[in-house]
Design a protein that fits this description.
Layout: E1 5-7, E2 12-15, E3 18-21, E4 27-29, E5 37-42, E6 48-56, E7 61-68, E8 71-79, E9 94-100, E10 113-116, E11 121-129, E12 133-142, E13 147-157, E14 164-165, E15 170-174, E16 177-185, E17 192-205, E18 213-224, E19 232-236, E20 239-246, E21 249-255, E22 273-279, E23 285-294, E24 301-308, E25 313-320, E26 327-333, E27 336-350, E28 358-362, E29 368-374, E30 383-389, E31 399-405, E32 414-420, E33 426-432, E34 435-436, E35 445-446, E36 450-455
Antiparallel strand pairs: 1-4, 2-3, 5-36, 6-7, 7-8, 8-9, 10-11, 11-12, 12-13, 14-16, 15-16, 16-17, 17-18, 19-20, 20-21, 21-22, 23-24, 24-25, 25-27, 26-27, 28-29, 29-30, 30-31, 32-33, 33-36, 34-35
Length: about 475
């Protein structure tokens, strides 16, 4: 039987033209099969990087965050509301906004974090480097998307951990406070790398910054000479996990107290976290791109990463299974190793990993769902895909994939990021560098960079009940 989502009275549904209040008592629909509506938000948004998505506020309004190469601004766009009308250049149904930060280091903007503050307000959060500090910016909004307040603070003094941050931090907003993972290195002849985890504990300490704050910074792993890559942080149900690369291995770290056969081996004191290899192949190379996500807690976890076994790159998926897996050796039962993750390919034929991005989230039923772009075998252009376990639709083992956007004459899906709301509906933000409607030589080619979205929208079936 296919997994179905049950929606309660009073839930607010997002539709393409805005927000509609729906009385959907006992509404039982298969949301996985809902079609995607695709639209351009801005038809000329050049050099976009570090794109991420979120569903914000009580109505879970779609939002896309990004930065542009060489432009020191936090930029975002969200679905317009009655109180905050749209203004995006190519779509009046979306509101485009930005906040200029002249000191922001290019390429250092984190994903957008969000958290509900109460029945009326929520927060949007970002972190980035100014070359000396990691700054945190927190904006409070009302549910109608009108802004209430803006605050910023220094989170980490980079010189405490080597002085140079690798890539961008990965963040979550929890209880109105930042959780953050970042990798730093020094500039010595033999470089030392540190994986650092920031979290709020209250009180006053100076582990992150020379001025006392309620944040604590824990060094999870130190690596001499072997590079650590930009991390991906996951938080859910009180559980925290960090994925990162170390040399030619994909690593996973999580807080842990030692038990026989499964000792703590990293973190503060060297014995408060556990760090393991998910995949350390003897053949081929591991890339630096990865994405970690949790469902309801860390027992529902998945990870995407790229591996090049010979001449062709692959996107790999690792799913937490607890035991009986084929990767992620994590402790022993007696003398037998326990493999707590299952690894397989998501897409075994990546045309050019430099042009491919991928993202990962979970649906409300704890199934992982991935998005990525690729020029598949026989195609002439990049397309946008989603993939998920067959079990999500009651079809047994393995995974399946679907094309969300693209044709054989366009290039689309780059910098994609995926979010799924509490009803199980999917929202993806991405870039489309070129568009051509057909292969006929007479078809015009749009070479402007289009900021795009694809979303499963509900029809306005209020106030009836579908069965």
């Amino acid at each position: 039987m296919k997994v179905r989502a049950i929606f309660m009275i009073g839930m607010v549904f997002v539709v393409f033209c805005g927000l509609v209040q729906v009385d959907a008592a006992a509404l039982d629909v298969n949301v996985i099969d809902f079609p995607y509506t695709k639209a351009t938000i801005d038809g000329d948004e050049t050099d976009v990087i570090n794109l991420s998505t979120a569903l914000v506020g009580a109505a879970e309004i779609p939002l896309i965050s990004f930065e542009q190469t060489g432009v020191p601004q936090i930029q975002w766009a969200h679905l317009a509301t009655q109180d905050v009308p749209g203004n995006c250049p190519s779509n009046a149904g979306w509101k485009c906004d930005f906040w200029g930060v002249t000191t922001m280091v290019n390429g250092s903007l984190s994903n957008v974090g969000t958290d509900r503050f109460g029945p009326d307000t929520f927060g949007l959060a970002w972190a980035f480097s100014d070359g000396t500090y990691i700054q945190g910016w927190l904006m409070e909004y009302f549910n109608n998307m009108s802004r209430n307040d803006i605050n910023w603070e220094y989170l980490i003094e980079e010189s405490k951990f080597g002085g140079t941050m690798i890539g961008a931090p990965s963040i979550e907003l929890v209880g109105g406070h930042f959780r953050l993972a970042a990798v730093f290195r020094d500039n010595g002849d033999i470089r030392t790398y540190q994986l650092v985890y920031l979290h709020y504990v209250g009180g006053s300490n100076t582990s992150c910054y020379h001025v006392a704050s309620g944040y604590q910074c824990d060094v999870i792993e130190v690596s001499v000479a072997t590079p650590l890559g930009q991390p991906s942080l996951a938080y859910a149900g009180g559980d925290t996990g960090i994925a990162y690369t170390k040399g030619n291995a994909v690593r996973y770290a999580y807080p842990w107290g030692s038990i026989p056969g499964r000792a703590s081996n990293c973190g503060p004191g060297g014995d408060t976290w556990r760090c393991i290899d998910i995949d350390a192949p003897s053949v081929g190379t591991i890339g630096t791109k990865l994405a970690l996500a949790y469902g309801s807690d860390r027992t529902h976890a998945a990870l995407l990463y790229n591996h090049k076994p010979t001449t062709k790159d692959m996107i790999m998926r690792a799913t937490y299974v607890g035991s009986g897996g084929n990767c992620g050796k994590d402790g022993y039962l007696g003398t037998d190793p326990v493999y707590r993750w299952d690894c397989s390919d998501l897409d075994a034929f990546i045309d050019n990993i430099n042009n491919t991005t991928f993202a990962l989230t979970f649906d409300p039923n704890n199934y992982p769902v991935a998005s990525w772009n690729n020029k598949f075998t026989g195609d002439e252009a990049q397309r946008l895909y989603v993939g998920y376990p067959n079990a999500r639709v009651g079809a047994g083992g393995g995974w399946q994939k679907h094309i969300v956007d693209g044709n054989d004459w366009s290039t689309t899906g780059i910098w994609n990021n995926i979010s799924i709301n509490s009803a199980g509906l999917t929202f993806i933000g991405y870039m489309q560098p070129t568009y051509r409607a057909c292969g006929d030589p007479g078809c015009a080619i749009d070479l402007s960079d289009n900021l795009r979205m694809a979303a499963q929208w509900f029809r306005t079936y209020a106030p009836i009940v579908l069965r």
